Amino acid sequence: MRRRTPMVTQRTCGVRALTMPYALRRHAVSMPVRPPDRPVRRPGPLDTPPGTPENRYVTSQEFRTAEVRLSDAEREQAIAVLREHAAQGRLSHDTFLTRMELALHARARGDLTALVADLPAEPPAPAPVPPAPAPLTGALARTVAALSALMGRVRDAWRFERVPRLMLPEPGPFPLRIGRDYANGLRIGDDSVSRCHAELRQADGVWLLRDLGSMNGTWINGRRLTGEAPVSPGDVVTFGRIGYRLAAR
């Protein structure tokens, strides 16, 4: 004989109501509850297509933006460039009219750029040439020349006064040796002067100065001596760093 499962009763308002069996009620907590079905959402335009990474950048093909319309000033500037090149002979009259018509109906900057892409860029404007100074008058030019000559004479006189004088020797059969060695007729004790630096002699009434292969050279009135050259009273001769002004007896 099958055993009957006891029923759990619940008193409600004095009426005994039957509820679920006790065995089922005891195991009701452990029974899984199925969640309600969610509505299926269709992919929108912002969803990432399947098979692509989530951090993919959105391209302009997916979100097209309206291009900025050209202004009248940009069209006028392009037409001015075309007019300038047509005036220089780079564009024919028909080509200029065709490109001007295209410039007036252009909508993007790329259209204007294509119209002038084959034209050379204009060279930069040359720098302004300063005006030439006005020519000096005759009297002013003579005054400036006189002042320049006076300053030159003052400078030479000041320089000659600072340079010690070297008296020309008496004419003789032997030349005057000049150098740092004690055996020379004119000894100059300076490191810039060689041991046998130069020699001074007279031939046919003319004094001749010759360099003897010195290290720092011999100079006459600021010019380096090569070989032998005539000198006279008033000339400034320099041996190394030491200079003299020749003077007659």
Automatic annotation (TrEMBL):
Signal peptide: none annotated. Residues 176-225 form the FHA domain. SMART domains: FHA. InterPro entries: Cell_Proc_Reg/RNA_Proc (IPR050923), DUF1707_SHOCT-like (IPR012551), FHA_dom (IPR000253), SMAD_FHA_dom_sf (IPR008984). This is FHA domain-containing protein. Residues 32-56 are annotated as: Disordered. Keywords: Phosphoprotein. SUPFAM superfamilies: SMAD/FHA domain.
